[in-house]
Amino acid sequence: MSTQTRDEGLYDYALREPRLPAPENRENDNIGIPIEARLEMYEMQQLLRQFEKRAYDMFLQNLVKGTSHLSLGQEAVATGFGRVMRPDDFTFATYRGHAHTLSRGADPGAVLAELLGRENGILKGKGGSMHLTSVEHGMMGSYAIIGAHLTIANGAAWSARMRGTDQVAVCFFGDGTTNIGAFHEALNLAAIWDLPVVFVCENNLWMEYTPIDLITAVANPAADRASAYGLEGIVVDGNDADAVYQVATQAIGRARRGEGPSLIEAQTYREQGHSRADPAKYRPPAEVQAWKERDPIPMYHERLLRLGVPEGDLSTIQQDVARRVDEATEFAKGGAVPGEQHLLTDVWADGGSAWRN
Known about the structure:
Rossmann fold; globular
């Protein structure tokens, strides 16, 4: 059996057949979502986009501490679910969690300050970009260990069951997580126990630097495995906030009624590299260009125009968001660098088991 070498193109992913997006579904113009809700989702997508662009600029200025993982191009997923969730529901996200934190109502200034490692950050500068958490907003953490938070989301859903509430846990993860053992363990247990949890795979096609289709036996890494756990395989256009909103409404409503978990695969695309250290030159140019043409924000902008929203109203929203991001930037830059007095705060005094009992 012959083995292809690196020089022969085994790792030249640009030579693979590009995965192209589905065409825009204009039928979603008329799926019954109130125009007020749509305007708020447009505003949220603008906030997520402008916030992360500013975060990128500040990273280049060496102001952001550590690395950062942006979700530019994926804003519709966080927006659609954030709009449906109640304030007391739970969100669990990966290290690519800026959008999910903001979509739950966290203050942009405090989030940006956290990226800068400042005292006025949402975690007082201790968490940084990869560990954003805001319990008061239902954002129960961003997790750097791939797949770890799926099992924790099950725990939050189980707690809601035990406490007799109708809270729902929504857990976001990338396509690479579907090949991690915790994914299968979490899905199996959630199905057996009928837990009020919604698992959302943000399939952006690339598992860091590796295309997911090259190392996965099925075409849809999440949805095609749902049947193994007695669940419906749900695929949604992750670049269409209205489509995401509709699927989120159904899945969250189902969980809230005690009808068990759901697994949703939102097909989307990150417009930039895996992290700020990644120029993403390995992706096929045709694929990148096709997905840029399906950018969720210009597409949603055009939909609102078709629905009769004046261009001036949309421009006003963009300008208001730009002002908020500028204010957030000044707030973040104005924060103090944490001093030594904070080193031993918000941590367990020792590593013993006493705190668990």
